[in-house]
Amino acid sequence: MIGYISGKILGRWDRGIIVDVNGIGYEIQMPPSSLTNLSSSDNEVTIFTHLAWKDDTISLYGFETIEARDMFRLLLEVSGVGTRLALNILSMLSAEELLQILAREENKRLQAIHGVGEKTAARLCIDLKEKAKAILTKRKWDVESAPHIEQVAMGDLWDDALSALAHLGYSPSETKAALAKTFASAGENANLEDLVKKALQGLAKSRTKRA
Q: What's the CATH code of the domain at 56?
């Protein structure tokens, strides 16, 4: 399994990009919205990937965040949902929005997406409702259980560290918990460089386990 790919964008087409990794070009299909977000200046990228085998074809699907990649995999567990439809859904909705919709069984919002009919929307909600609830509950617990999160989530230093990690491609759900733990262990003498460095170490370990 290929968890992620980091390299330079060498080319684009209507459904994805070609990323050069040490002289090897990987064709990666992505949601249309993600392709739009990748500007022409984004030469160096890190894309979280899903490797799919179908008959005699091997395909790579890529996402800007690990949450979107995991959501893609969850969608593929539903009967009748293929890779193209899953990409289309994630182009219209973020992983967080989709989890909320599934947990609340908001079928009508799913039906507004091209390719998702009434039956497919109902099947998505029935099959993924409990899983979506479990994921949302775990994320809430991860953030709320981080020590002193209400105390540390204040001030310029916190905001600067959060912004620095966001620019590196980490989502708020990842960074807040990691920063809270880092702040708690650093104490009053914390500085921005050390906080970001330690938070990155924790985030890297977390992503390695989940990839």
A: 2.40.50.140
Q: What value does the CA radius of gyration of the chain take, rounded to a whole number of Å?
A: 19
CB 28 within 8 A of CB 49: yes
**Domain range for residue 22?**
4-63
pLDDT at position 152 is 41
* Rounded Cα–Cα distance for residues 160 and 157 (Å): 5
pLDDT of residue 69: 93
197 in Cβ contact with 178 (< 8 Å): no
54, 9 in Cβ contact below 8 A? no
90 and 131 belong to one structural domain: yes
Q: 110, 71 in Cβ contact below 8 A?
A: no
Q: Which of 49-58, 87-96, 148-157 has the highest mean pLDDT?
A: 87-96
DSSP secondary structure letter of residue 82: -
**pLDDT digit string (tens) for 11-44?**
888 899 999 999 999 999 999 888 888 765 567 8
Here the CATH number for the domain that contains residue 117 is: 1.10.150.20
Q: Is residue 144 part of a domain?
A: no
